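Q: Got a minute? One more chain.
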Amino acid sequence: MPRALLQSGIELEYDTIGSPDDEPLLLVMGFTAQLIAWPDDFCKMLADAGRYVIRFDNRDCGLSTKLDGQVPDVAAVMTALATGQPVPPVPYTLSDMAADAVGLLDHLGIERAHVVGASMGGMIVQTMAIEHPQRLRSMVSVMSTTGEPTVGQAAPEAISVLLSPPPTDRDEFIAAAPRFLVFQSKKYADVERSKLMAAASYDRSFYPEGASRQLGAIAASGSRAALLPAVSVPTLVIHGRDDTLIQPSGGERTAELIPGAHLLLVADMGHDLPEPLWPIVVGAIVTHTANAA
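A: Always. Here it is, folded:
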């Protein structure tokens, strides 16, 4: 896969699917998830619908730049936010990650793109719409939230699983993968598929150290509620009704704050993109981007 060297010195691993003559569609993945979390066939459906699909590894994930050894004090960040004190420094914020995505567009010579972000990726594309609106044709925020502590709260069992340190042994890591089903789509739960994805992720890049820095970026960036009402980028918000990691109120609030945003709540969808729901999600993305082009 190719790599993009950004002006910041960060290198992003990326790939593309489809024709560069089609409408560019940048996919931004979530917390600790590599670009392969956007399934190949999902991307092909978008490409077959006339979109030039670009997916990449965020910093501290996959094969992109890793900031080894930088350890944020996430607990101190959370305490500062809760008490109104100055937030201690972190290695980077969501603004830096949004700038990474814009830098990738620069590398590819793309002036304006449609952007789709899932989970933390939704937070990143919201930040792009706030800070780099001139680079966006449209935005789709999927299973994400506004950063406000009162909406999108995770169920205790969901956040516990997400933040538990993963096994370091390959076989144990794969065997433990079904634990994530606790916040994924119950109707479409697939133990074997979860293990296959875990194996592919482990073999491509096992890097649990990046989790604390990405978590620090989310925490230190705080709420976007005061800035989202000024967003003018055409916006679609997609959220699963059964999401327990970022509960539907996060998506509902995002759509409420962004003027003219459309909200799609998907039945039987948790915090994942199960294949039986791809026609709904892809169809919504294609229609939204066509109307915003």
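A: The mean pLDDT is 96.
Q: Perfect, thanks.
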